Structures are given as structure tokens and as C-alpha cells.
Amino acid sequence: MSETNSIPVVIETGFGAIFIEVYPALAPVTAANFMQYVDEDRFTDACFYRVVRMDNQPNDAIKIEVIQGGLKSDDHAERLPAILHETTAQTGLLHQNGAVSMARLNPGSACSEFFICINDQPELDFGGQRNPDGMGFAAFGKVTQGMDVVREIQAHPHEGQQLVKDVKMKVRRVEG
Hints:
This protein has 176 residues and is an alpha+beta fold. The chain contains 3 helices and 10 strands; from the N terminus they run ββαββαβββαβββ. The chain has helices at 28-39, 88-91, 147-154; strands at 7-13, 16-22, 47-52, 66-70, 99-102, 114-117, 138-145, 158-159, 162-168, 170-173. A 10-stranded antiparallel beta sheet has the order 8-9-3-4-6-5-7-2-1-10, with helices on one face. The radius of gyration is 15 Å and the shape is globular.
């Protein structure tokens, strides 16, 4: 999927770069939130810290595969207020391989934490069964290059779903 007015962003890690496109026309609230973190350098301390794999979800009936990152702390000084939940039914952006989406507990609680889907994850879409509320998660972008880096991060040593060593990231707009 390529939206004509997408915003190119790069997430630089020690394992390589992950290039994404953010879709403000399709997910205006969620995209604006993410880009505010990027443009105001609020992701200075950000990292990937959680990996969800088929083998580390023993209590989940619906299994998914993602890596999650962001500020990691609910009381981080750079954290912005929670945003309105935009469902995949509203945006049309599905949780397919490489989708970038906001993490949340309840609808309307997403702030700084985001995840990248590994393989298609339809149970994260509106009506999906990963969350009991059925509201799904708010996808707002897609990886255009660097899924090999995403998979490498997912394969790193972890305890439960937490990486043994966080993967620091630098997030910025791609100019030019």
C-alpha cells in the first residue's frame, strides 16, 4: 500500500535501519501523534523492548508476532496524553506483514508505544479476538524496507516477552 502523501520515517538501530511510511490521510489522529513524537525528538530515549513470538505466549489463545518499542515507561517525561482510538474499520489499514500500529490497553489509551507486525495479524484488526473488546489496534503505517532488521530484533534473547537487552532506536523523518 502506498499513500501519495505518506511521510517517510526511518528507525535506526544497531542492527540496521527500518524504513516506514506513515499515512496521515488514512489515520490522521494516530499518524499525527506518532509524528509529534518524531518531530519533537520525544523518542530520544526510545527502544524496542518487547518481542512477541509464537513460543512466548503460553496463556494466549490467540497468538501474534510483533516487536514493540517506544518510551517504555508510563511516566516518561516525553510522554504525550493518550489519543482517540482509530480502528482499522475506520482507516482501512490492516495489520498485515510490516504494519506499524499503536500499542494500547483500552481504546483511547495509546500514547507512545508502537509495534511492528511480523506476518499478517488479522486478530489485531477491528473485530479481531486478540483483545476482548474487539476494537483492535490503530495501524498508521507500514515498513517499506528493513523487515530483516525487524525479524532480527524479534529473534534476540528474551525473558518472557521482554528483550534481555533493549534495542535502542533513533527515529527521524527521511528528508529529500
